[in-house]
Amino acid sequence: MAQPTPAPVRICPSCDGFASAAITLGGRDQNGNRRTITAHCRTCRGTGTTPPLRTLLDTAATAAFTRR
Ligand SMILES: [Zn+2]
Known about the structure:
- The protein is built from 1 helix and 4 strands.
- By secondary structure, it is α+β, with helices and mostly antiparallel strands.
- It is elongated.
């Protein structure tokens, strides 16, 4: 079967798409829930993907053309 063109989403190379992870601290809080903290990837800011290349190009072009 032919596969459709994949969506132009670039998985973040720093976290392989796992942008946030719940880290168990151990023990439970007063409500009986596990105590966890959520860590977000710094590269993609928790999205798991990198910005489309087009966005970067537009940003670069804007900077170039607004220069006097
Ligand atoms: Zn990431």
